[in-house]
Specification:
single chain; 20 strands; 16 helices; alpha/beta; six-stranded parallel β-sheet; six-stranded mixed β-sheet
């Protein structure tokens, strides 16, 4: 049976043995919006639990629009033009509108990458700046939450007269779903905030997982922090498997996002009757599979349906390598993941991006991992605690030899965009 896994910009076609496949787990069919540009315009005029954007914009002195960085396939080229036009038609000059890229703790998006992110026209004619989470001087302190998280948020947003956020609602390995509040925290939060909010106190909670909102402390805390920062208006979308817009919602930060979550839950949750021996998956292709740091999401997404002691086969391009310098150092300093978990549970150890290795440690504590990639050499992949394999076909053949004739395989071509679950207890 032939499958095409999302891999880099091109995809990766693989041939797997029919007899062992229990199913292809895919995003359910949803009709793309016939005219997404018109739908976005309408959402600005008839938002959810908020006045129209035109009404909100009148009389404002300046505005800050948050956009996700290059690691999220948000259709900014469709969202930004009507946003900018509405603000300008209601009294704001272009020079008084800042587009702030919510990089979180990722690198800045500049040059050709910036043009790809927002379009060449907007890149050339608008004020666009990158958030820098490592520079505390660029943040305002808004107080400390009851759970002990200091809220440091980019002052360019905090001090803006009109605060607008954009984003994509999709499954997220810690916060349940992305979008809404998440573009504020961690999108424009400082390192002092993220290191506590992304710490073991929150991430080790059983509800800090993909697709879970109720009782999820990661979601609850960044919602609290986003409310402290303030948000006048959001524009969020949902996408199908071909990255076409299937839903658009605008308005109140919480209620509009919750409506989008209700929609996307009907699309991304996919059952299997029982846990399988092998899951073949991806990290959803470009831009999500460019680094090993991001590719971890493909593994955590498959974890709910793989048997204890089973294997996840991940195909990821890893075209930009491991990730940040801090993440690379983290991997080098922690060859023993059990000792790493002990270190982070203490109070005297912290390295930026440790939360992603913490999530990965949960995966390898449960199952084996084989990785197919042309972006990293085999020896480097081994240092990532995985087994490098040249092809998906070889990886699956090795698994079948290990697990026997009755082995069952599930395939998730679009990786973490799908929420698989087991129906039998």
């Amino acid at each position: 049976m032939q499958f095409t896994l999302d891999y880099g910009r091109t995809g990766l076609t693989v041939e797997l043995p029919d007899a062992h496949i229990v199913g292809t787990l895919a995003i359910r069919a949803a009709t793309p919006l016939a005219n997404p540009a018109a739908a976005i315009e309408q959402a600005l005029k008839q938002p959810i639990a908020a006045p129209p954007l035109a009404e909100i914009a009148r009389g404002r002195k300046n505005a800050c629009i948050l956009v996700c960085d290059i690691t999220r396939p948000v259709p900014n080229r469709l969202i930004l033009p009507p946003l900018l036009r509405t603000l300008e038609e209601n009294g704001l000059e272009r020079k008084d509108i800042l587009i702030l890229i919510a990089t979180g703790l990722h690198r800045p998006n500049e040059g050709a990458e910036l043009e790809e992110l927002v379009s060449p026209e907007i890149a050339a004619n608008c004020r666009i700046e990158n958030h820098n989470g490592k520079n505390r001087d660029e943040h305002d302190y808004l107080g400390t939450t009851p759970n002990g998280v200091p809220a440091w948020i980019d002052r360019r947003y905090v001090r803006a007269d009109l605060k607008i956020t954009t984003g994509l609602i999709e499954p997220h390995l810690m916060a349940g779903y992305s979008g809404g509040r998440k573009v504020i925290c961690p999108g424009i939060a400082g390192l002092d905030t993220v290191k506590i909010w992304h710490g073991p106190k929150f991430l080790e909670h059983p509800n800090a997982d993909s697709g879970i909102v109720a009782g999820n402390p990661v979601h609850e805390e960044n919602t609290r922090i986003a409310k402290m920062a303030g948000c006048d208006f959001i524009v969020n979308v949902c996408l199908d498997g071909q990255r076409q817009i299937t839903w658009v919602g605008a308005g109140d930060m919480v209620r509009a996002w919750e409506e989008g979550v209700r929609f996307i839950e009907t699309i991304v949750k996919t059952p299997v009757a029982e846990a399988v021996d092998v899951v073949v998956t991806s990290c959803a292709g470009y831009p999500l599979d460019t680094t090993w740091y991001q590719a971890v999401k493909g593994l955590t997404g498959a974890l709910p349906i793989v048997k204890k002691g089973g294997t996840i086969v991940l195909a990821a391009s890893l075209s930009e390598g491991l990730g940040s310098a801090e993440f690379q150092q983290l991997l080098a300093d922690n060859p023993d993941l059990d000792k790493f978990k002990q270190r982070i549970m203490g109070s005297d150890y912290f390295i930026m991006d440790q939360w992603q290795l913490e999530e990965f440690a949960k995966v390898v504590a449960h199952c084996k991992v084989k990785v197919v990639s042309d972006g990293l050499p085999a020896e480097m992949l081994r240092r990532c605690h995985v087994e490098p394999v040249p092809t998906v076909e070889q990886a699956v053949a090795e698994c079948l030899k290990e697990y026997g004739r009755g082995a069952k395989i599930a395939v998730i071509p679009k990786g973490p965009y799908v929420l698989p679950y087991v129906t039998k207890g």
